[in-house]
Amino acid sequence: MLNGFDEVFIMDGNGPYVWSCLVIFILILVLNIFTALKRKNKILKSLKKL
Amino acid sequence: MGSPPLFYKWSSKILPWLSIVSILILGVGLYWGMFYAPTDYKQGDVYRILFIHVPSAILGQSIFMFMAICGFINMIWRAKISGMMLKSAAPIGASFTLLALVTGSIWGKPTWGTWWVWDARLTSTLILFFIYAALIGLHSTIEDKTKADRAVSILSIVGIAIIPVIKKSVDWWQTLHQPSTFTITSSPSMSPDMYQPLLICVIGFYLFFALLLTLNLRNEVLEREKNKNWVRQLFGGLS
């Protein structure tokens, strides 16, 4: 198990590569959810007008 | 399940549970992989990218196969929901294929010494991403939704040929990319301490796909059926 700041974030020097992948992954998930919710709101607004 | 109103009603019940389970499993898998899995004796800690890269690559290909099946159903039985599924799944598939390409590129820098090589596995995955982009573009350019669904169905059925090429690219050509991590025919070559969190991540990614697909599909159903009685009754309180 990884313990301490250096071990977790820096790892063996390749930590930034690993963490940047995790950040991109989270960004993609958030973007997909955000797009879906934004579209839902838009549809609900158009339904109100009907 | 083939009828849009039935899907909408059913998905409303399953959505909260799906959200909780997918976030929980994905969280456990990633936490296990990032903090508890042992360091690789050859690659060191950079191998931990595997817990994101491999599931996203598997998912990118699986979503395309799912789309080809939807396309086939849409062509043969003209099921309305299958066309909606095609449109809803395409951006998710493109996202995960892009994620596999980007994380693979980041992993390539410390291990291969370069961000990108025109390797058979990488190039065929890039082609898959372009096919996804073409599917999304094609659907948005055709105004008639039924015609758009049929065109995308044909392209997804034809495009399925890329999947065995991606899968077999490491066997057919000399590549920098390592052989497949998951195979049906043989037992895993990696330690169970690494394989178990990877398996949980893969399950978490699939569940997350199910969640995103449900969200997109509900929107698609509402948009296409907004003039139908069941939608008017359901959202009658809005007006």
Concise synopsis of the structure shown:
Chain A is mainly α. Chain A is 82% helix and 0% strand.
Characterization of this structure:
The complex is a heterodimer of chains A (50) and B (239). Chain A is 82% helix and 0% strand. Chain A is built from two helices and no strands. With 239 residues, chain B is mostly helical. Chain B has one domain (4-177, 188-232). Chain B has eight helices and no strands. The longest helix of chain B is centred in the N-terminal third of the chain and has 33 residues, at 4-36. The two termini of chain B are 28 Å apart. The model of chain B has no long low-confidence stretch (mean pLDDT 91).
Topology, pairings included?
The complex is a heterodimer of chains A (50) and B (239).
Chain A: H1 5-10, H2 15-49
Chain B: H1 4-36, H2 50-77, H3 80-112, H4 120-141, H5 145-159, H6 162-172, H7 192-224, H8 229-234
What tags apply to this protein structure?
heterodimer, A: 50 residues, mainly alpha, rod-shaped, B: 239 residues, 76% helix
**Spatial extent as radius of gyration of chain A:** 19 Å
Q: What separation lies between the terminal Cα atoms of chain B?
A: 28 Å
* Radius of gyration from the alpha-carbon trace of chain B, in angstroms: 20 Å
Counted up, domains of chain B total 1
Strand and helix order of chain B: HHHHHHHH
Number of strands of chain A: 0
Tally the helices of chain B.
8
